[in-house]
Amino acid sequence: MAVTLKDIATKAAVSLATVSRVLNYDNTLSVSDATRHKIFEIAEQLNYTKHKHPSPRQGKKLAVVQWYTEAQELDDLYYMSIRMGIEQHCQQLGFKALQVYQNNLEQLPTDIDGIIAVGKFSSQQITQFKQRSSHVILVDYDGLPYGCDSVVTDFEHSVENVVDTFIKQQIEDIGVIYGSETTADNAQDVPDPRHHYFVKKMKAERLYQPEFVFEGRYTSESGYQMMKQAIEKLGNKLPHAFFIANDPMAVGALKALQEANIAIPGRVSLISFNDTSIANYVYPGLSSVHVATDLMGKSAVDLMVEQLDGDREYVKKITLGTKLIERQSVKNRV
User: Fold this and answer.
1) How far apart are alpha carbons 230 and 213 in whole angstroms?
2) 326 located within any domain
3) Shared-domain flag, residues 65 and 39
């Protein structure tokens, strides 16, 4: 007797519609990866044959270019999680994802169907991508100036929310520790948009104080050194709150404050950005702006599907919102 979708739905304890949409690779369906995998496993066990029909993506190869080296990626969970989100969605849709790291760009395959580039790349590198494939997606970098689809984070409203959170706590002396970097080939400087929107918001609130601004690198050691510099330079005028551009920098800043016996959040409140797993495991737990890295990866793959399946005339930029996750490094609201 032939196996039906209803048989699979019953065994998986989900609706018939869910089974149908999963087995037909419906990208718009909101369902957990665990459920999706369970449905495919049950379909396999019951020898359901329709799901074995090749996906229209089957056999197509996408190069996932990470701007970091493999070693650097291990130290930055943010970019690793974006890459993993891309690779997971590629697997779901039948794409073959090929990992290419910054120090191996010369190994970029010539027979690829598309490129998803994660990180900051110069115009020369983007041109190189386009020479290999007419289908290029940039992730965490605005592709509109380069004629590429892209997926980015809404920095402006995220930063405004951070400043508003401090103000609601009746804190108006707010500092910032932000980063500077260059593209993967060191050809172009990449300004930190969090710093730009922080200055804009603080000036709008008439609270901006340039002596509370510290520029470093996006590393724990740099965050540590920048906070030590702030403590030594400002003394009793040290701000009662700091916005810090990413979690590794915030961890370093946290260490510097603790070494100086400065209470967190009693004397200084901290809010970080990205909300990688490290934010929840340090003490006190770091309040951090959560960036939807999995969704960034998924959205990039969906844009690639649009490019491969259609003839869209204009490039598209997807801007994803964020959520502020408050933990022990911020005072309870008054």
Assistant:
1) 9
2) no
3) no
Q: Which two tokens stand for residue 178?
A: 């932000």
pLDDT at 103 (0 to 100): 60
State the Cα–Cα distance between residues 119 and 297, nearest whole angstrom: 12
In a domain, 327, yes or no: no
| pLDDT value for 334 | 47
The two structure tokens encoding residue 58: 């089957």
- CATH number of the structural domain spanning residue 272: 3.40.50.2300
Examine the domain organization and report whether 255 and 309 are in the same domain: no
Task: Give the domain range for residue 254.
Answer: 155-292
Confirm if 224 and 256 have CB atoms less than 8 A apart. yes
CA distance 67 to 304: 19
Averaged over successive runs of 10 residues, the pLDDT of the chain (334 residues) comes to 80 87 74 81 74 58 85 76 90 86 73 91 90 92 94 96 96 95 86 96 97 94 96 96 95 96 96 90 93 94 89 90 94 63
- Say how far apart CA 202 and CA 140 lie, in whole Å: 25
Backbone angles phi, psi at 198, to 5 degrees: -65, -50
Q: Which residues contact 163 (CB under 8 A, 6 or more apart)?
A: 174, 198, 201, 202, 205, 243
Q: Report the DSSP beta bridge partners of residue 223.
A: none
Domain match, 176 and 277 both:
yes
Q: For residue 108, which of 86, 132, 87 has the smallest C-alpha distance?
A: 132
Per-residue burial over 164-193, b if 16 or more Cβ lie within 10 Å, else e, is ebbeebebbebbbbbbebebbeeeeebebb
CA dist 149 and 65 (Å) reads 15
End-to-end CA distance of the chain: 66
Do 162 and 286 fall into the same domain?
yes
300 located within any domain = yes
Tell me how long the chain is: 334
Whether residue 125 lies inside any domain: the answer is yes
For residue 72, the model assigns a pLDDT of 72
Please check whether residues 149 and 297 belong to one and the same domain.
yes
Q: What share of residues in the chain are helix, strand, coil (percent, to 5)?
A: 45, 20, 35
